[in-house]
DNA sequence: TTTATTATAGAACAAATGTACTAATATTTT
DNA sequence: AAAATATTAGTACATTTGTTCTATAATAAA
């Protein structure tokens, strides 16, 4: 593993546990026993570390979405997989979803990219719903304008569940995962066609 | 208006527009043309300002909930009012909902209080739903375990909508309010009894 | 009106932080 | 092996930030 990768791994670990605002480049260097000078040789600016972590996050989302797009024949299980994959990613990079938009939005490279990626994800999930309605898995007696609303609800809960968990139950591991899935699945349950209610 | 109040007003204004992490006690003092020394005469620690703003936020929530509790005969309109009041409060203090739990959770006085207040709000909203089911406004053919889930979904979307808006459409004013209400109302629409679908 | 108090300004300090610089060491290329 | 390049440690510096200190000024109490 290269020093760069080690820095990123250490950074995300420290950020996730202590929060971005409390972790400085010196902390990261100290944690992995290298000098501050060395760290800034690999990442000139501390912001560049956060930027690199964001790129990792986006990369993981993209590879997952690419897989999903290949599946022409979307099934209900894909939706569950989607939620579970989202949970894993938001867990690994939970600092981005917990530290709010405050810090992240102040990094220009991220700010410029964020809107684009969220829009893309929304469109993709919208397609999945469309196909599931067509297949009769979701109800087809509803006005079409409800689907974008459902997609948005899914994203808000998916993205900010960790933040909410932090200020309420503080669940971890399997319990956290179960609660997350319960909330996400509960969101589209009312829209399932009657025959699929299981 | 006392200097203390002026400091809090200036602080929330600056925090809301620039984010907590970018605003220091010096910025606040400069914005209102007083000396740093004077500011720290009124608030010994910068954190105390955030703590005081949090107390304001909680206070506004409490006065609203107290009104609602007096209404013995809960109607559907109360639910909409509830959402609208929540929107106003989360807008006025949106920094707390945008800067994430990261900063806020590091202030002990807030951390200790936050869980309590969220739980209280959840219970109160749970009661409202219970009464609305009883009155036949919400469906009574559903398993009772779905109501806590719905309450939690409502709170996540209610609390973090501003954060989500920041990274997507960045709506403001009336448009923001309309979108917020659309998402919140869309959440409980599927649970309305058939006769109430209007 | 004198005295006490509260409020304010402005300078000063210490700690933290990002980052640049220098020299040494390791690694790769030729 | 020699030269070039990449990596590392350690130090140093400037800036920012929270906070304290001291001296005035304003206000309230006596």
Walkthrough of the structure:
The structure is a homodimer of 198-residue chains. Chain A is elongated and about 65 Å long. In chain A, helix 5 (76-92) crosses helix 10 and helix 9 runs antiparallel to helix 10 (173-188). In chain A, 30% of the residues are buried. The first copy, chain A, starts with a helix and ends in a 10-residue tail after the last helix. Chain A contains ten helices and no strands. Chain A folds into two domains: 1-44, Arc Repressor Mutant, subunit A; 53-196, Tetracycline Repressor, domain 2 (Orthogonal Bundle). Chain A is mainly alpha-helical and 198 residues long. At the A-B interface, helix 6, helix 7, helix 8, helix 9 and helix 10 of A face helix 6, helix 7, helix 8, helix 9 and helix 10 of B. Chain A binds a DNA duplex (30 and 30 nucleotides) through helix 3.
CATH C-level name of the largest domain in chain A: Mainly Alpha
The CATH H-level superfamily of the largest domain in chain A is Tetracycline Repressor, domain 2
Strand content of chain A: under 5%
Count of beta strands of chain A: 0
Counting structural domains of chain A, the number is: 2
What pattern of helices and strands is seen along the backbone of chain A?
A: HHHHHHHHHH
Compute the number of helices of chain A. Answer: 10
Overall spatial form of chain A = elongated
Give the CA-CA distance, first to last residue of chain A.
46 Å
CATH-defined architecture of the largest domain in chain A: Orthogonal Bundle
Radius of gyration of chain A over all CA atoms, rounded: 19 Å
In quaternary terms, these chains amount to homodimer
Main sheet: strands, sense, barrel of chain A? none
Computed structural class of chain A: mainly alpha
* pLDDT < 50 stretches of chain A: none
Q: What percent of the residues of chain A sit in helical stretches (DSSP H or I)?
A: over 70%
Provide the CATH topology of the largest domain in chain A: Tetracycline Repressor, domain 2
Q: For the largest interface in this structure, which chains are involved and how many residues does each contribute?
A: A-B, 41 and 41 residues
The overall pLDDT of chain A, averaged over residues, is: 90
């Amino acid at each position: 593993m290269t020093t760069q990768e080690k820095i990123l791994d250490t950074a995300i670990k420290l950020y996730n546990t202590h929060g971005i605002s409390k972790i400085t480049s010196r902390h990261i260097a100290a944690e992995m026993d290298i000098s501050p000078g060395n760290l800034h040789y690999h990442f000139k600016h501390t912001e560049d570390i956060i930027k690199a972590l964001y790129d990792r996050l986006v990369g993981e989302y993209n590879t997952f979405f690419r897989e999903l797009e290949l599946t022409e024949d979307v099934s209900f299980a894909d939706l569950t997989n989607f939620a579970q994959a989202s949970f894993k990613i938001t867990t690994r990079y939970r600092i981005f979803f917990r530290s709010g938009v405050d810090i992240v939005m102040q990094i220009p490279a991220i700010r410029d990219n964020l809107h684009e990626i969220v829009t893309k994800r929304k469109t993709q999930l919208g397609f999945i719903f469309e196909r599931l309605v067509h297949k009769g898995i979701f109800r087809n007696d509803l006005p079409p304008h409800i689907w974008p609303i459902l997609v948005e609800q899914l994203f808000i809960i998916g993205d900010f569940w960790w933040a909410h968990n932090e200020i309420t139950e503080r669940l971890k591991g399997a319990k956290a995962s179960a609660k997350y899935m319960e909330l996400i699945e509960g969101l589209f349950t009312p829209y399932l066609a009657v025959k699929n209610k299981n």
